[in-house]
Amino acid sequence: MNESGSNDSSRRCVWTFHQVSCTSSDLSAAERTTLLAILLSISAITIAGNILTIASILYFRQLQTRPNVLTLSLAVADLLVGLLIMLFNAMSSVHNCWFYGRVSCRVHTWLDYTFCTSSIVHLSCISFDRYVAISDPLRNNDSITHAALAAMLALSWFSFPIDGLAFMLQWNLVGLEEETRWSCPDDCEVILNLPYAVAITACAFVLTMLLMALAYDRIYRLARVQSCKINSLGAQVQKASSDAECLSKWNAMKRDHNATITLGIIIGILIAIWMPYFVVSATEPMVGYQAGPVAWEVINWFTYLNWMANPILFAAFNMSFRWAFRLLVMCSAFRPGIRGVDLFNFKERPA
């Protein structure tokens, strides 16, 4: 979301190669090279991490659950951010210039808002799924029906692309003719008028974050009760380790409890990362667009860290994904019987 609205008349437009007119860069060649390497590394980690998440769910049978369909869909959205948004924005951020045409700038901005908002909505749906799972962990597959899952996927993917079309039609620039005249033609800056800034902040951030916070508050209360049940049932499992039904209940509750903790950490990081962007985005029209391009670039790339962090958090706090990632990275996933292994209780270090 390469947003900027500074009306600094001292900004100089220069003609670069391919006949594009952009703001002159204050960085030296060495600084541009270093910054580009850092931004491309962030993009590469985002792409690789989400490919690992997708491959893990598609390959390991234990991860092919109905709730993990949402996790798979989230990873696809995050992967698209890495491939279609971050790689192009890396060049634009370093050179203060969009080299790919003015129409593609609007398309890129539309996709940027669409994929990023889709990821946020995915996490809202996963919060609802966690609430159902921890409320009744032994009947989770029956509680989340195919119809409910399809509805959540449709909401995640198709509710906000229409909103992003405003950038294609330039509705966000209505009434901002004075501010936009300071921009160089090929800077690919995004400026939001007050109604649009308030609307997108309310819908894409405030509403979804409020729903996630309320859901997770309820989830946390249930998780504390479930933790006591896990400890109690664990004692029973130790006394009757041959009881398959008791062991199955204990493992199911532990997996759901583990997933709930992971989700809570992801939501907390999501709110912390996105808060600066939406606060500045909503207040910029009210204070006369005082944030400069550099400030916006820092804020934008700070939000992109969210999509890089999700796979890392899955590996750090979810035992099943941790072992799935490890087996894939170490090329041990194709050993006989590994595809159907119990990842949650997998203790043997792969050879």
UniProtKB/TrEMBL annotation:
Indicate how the chain sits in the lipid bilayer: Multi-pass membrane protein
Q: Which GO terms describe its biological process?
A: adenylate cyclase-activating adrenergic receptor signaling pathway; positive regulation of MAPK cascade
- Where do transmembrane segments lie in this chain? 35-60, 69-90, 110-128, 149-174, 194-216, 259-278, 298-317
Top-level taxon: Eukaryota
Extract the GO molecular function terms from the UniProt entry. G protein-coupled receptor activity
Q: Which is a Gene Ontology cellular component entry for this protein?
A: plasma membrane
Q: Where's the G-protein coupled receptors family 1 profile domain?
A: 49-314
Annotated localization: Cell membrane
Its keywords, alphabetically, are: Cell membrane, G-protein coupled receptor, Membrane, Receptor, Transducer, Transmembrane, Transmembrane helix
List each coiled-coil range.
none
InterPro entries, per database record: GPCR_Rhodpsn (IPR000276), GPCR_Rhodpsn_7TM (IPR017452)
Q: Name one Pfam family in it.
A: 7tm_1
- Which family is it part of? Belongs to the G-protein coupled receptor 1 family.
Q: What PANTHER family does the annotation carry?
A: ADRENERGIC RECEPTOR-RELATED G-PROTEIN COUPLED RECEPTOR, OCTOPAMINE RECEPTOR BETA-3R
UniProt name for this protein: Trace amine-associated receptor 9-like
Source organism per entry reads Petromyzon marinus (Sea lamprey)
Q: What does the organism's lineage look like at the top?
A: Eukaryota, Metazoa, Chordata, Craniata, Vertebrata
